[in-house]
Amino acid sequence: MSRLIVVSNRVAAPRDPAAGSAGGLAMALSAALRKYDGLWFGWSGETVETFTPEAKFEDRAGVTVALVDLEAQDVEEYYNGYANKTLWPLFHHRVDLTAYERSYGEGYERTNARFAEVLAPLLRPDDLIWIHDYHMIPLARDLRRLGVKNRIGFFLHTPWPARQLLVTLPHHRRLVESMFDYDLIGFHTREWLDLFRDYVASEPSVNGKLLPNDAVEAFGRTVQTGVFPIGIDVDAFLAARNSTFGARTYDRMAASAAFRSMIVGVDRLDYSKGLEERLLGYEQFLEDNPDMRGEVFLLQVTPISRDEVDTYQDIRARLDALAGRVNGEYADMDWQPVRYINRTYRRDQLAGIYRAARVGLVTPLRDGMNLVAKEYIAAQNPDDPGVLVLSRFAGAAEQMGEALLVNPFSREELSDAIKRALTMPLSERKRKWECLMQVVRDTDVGIWRDDFVASLTAVVKPAA
Ligand code: ADQ
User: Fold this and answer.
1) What is the mean pLDDT of residues 164-178?
2) Strand 39-48 and strand 261-266: pairing?
């Protein structure tokens, strides 16, 4: 049987899977690596004075991980720079926040070439290689240059941007050309895949061709593409929900929400998640519905992320101010409309929190998929489920059309959706929840992983 080699910027294989802190993706890929006797390769998170092309190996609960140290300049230009200040905002439609620095692009190319230099000698001829996310788009090209002939798949966890935005990136053609060294490219949704195909077929400097069955041809090569919607580990999440700790958190939240309806938001602190717009929508709701003041509260759980990037410090300051403003304006001596918390919780605690919430607010301005939407649904009590309010711009909206879909840029729409969710009759809530829970089951992370691996194995490679 072929080995599976997973490659991602940070290696998420948990040291202690029983600790309950690892997400579904980390658990699903770790399980696959145990099954296929594979390897998880990526950056160690450490910096060294001088790069040496060697990996450090570790065993993490039966998963072999291979870690590479980078130089500080690599981290600054490749990770903080090109990945987080250039590609992330651009892929989330924020050209206003995109940094177009030449040194970032150069650092990105250099660091990917370094990853290839360390990875190539570790490979065996029949290994399947699965590269994840926007940090490592050119890695297949760099591996091919070193003579690697293996099947290589790529999965993008973010949206793919519209062509009109992608062309603002200097060397966009070079970036896309490097993708034609993969055998398979996967996206979360048909929408992201169609945007990729539109670029390939309509960008004059590429002049590619769309072939049957989602294959695309350009730069003298053909690549297979596909839609692979990611999900959560449903059984693990239900077990976390039903665990003693999950149940205890639910009781604690339910007691704290007694006589009041809780609305919950759980998101990394990121401008793509639409947090400011969400707070403005909630403020509008309080303005529009004086009778509901004192009856509801919003619990917004938002761990700080990427704090070394200025844009993230700015949005953090704006959110602090906004949460303070809404509380200052509407709170009463025994009621606070917003509980804004910058910390992480264990998965079983999160499950308890979701279950106690009447409304789940998942309103990103743009998001590859969004797993919180699926976690919120999985956590609900089937006899009395809460209502999911979901941005139409999250990839999840392509499958979860039974949620209350909203335009997160409109505070009036958000206000109306919150009201509708809070007042929805039980029969409608149950019907919607049943449909949505079926979607959550159908897109279990194990199905996503196995589909991708099977599709990569099935790609017909042109004769060498
Ligand atoms: P993210 O942008 O991180 O992922 P998301 O899919 O919502 O977004 O996943 C976030 C995860 O972090 C969820 O499992 C959530 O429970 C967890 N989390 C968030 N806040 C937390 C907190 N306070 N405490 C504990 N856990 C918390 C990227 C893409 C998404 C895509 C995923 C997977 O941006 O669009 O869905 O990858 O492909």
Assistant:
1) 98
2) unpaired
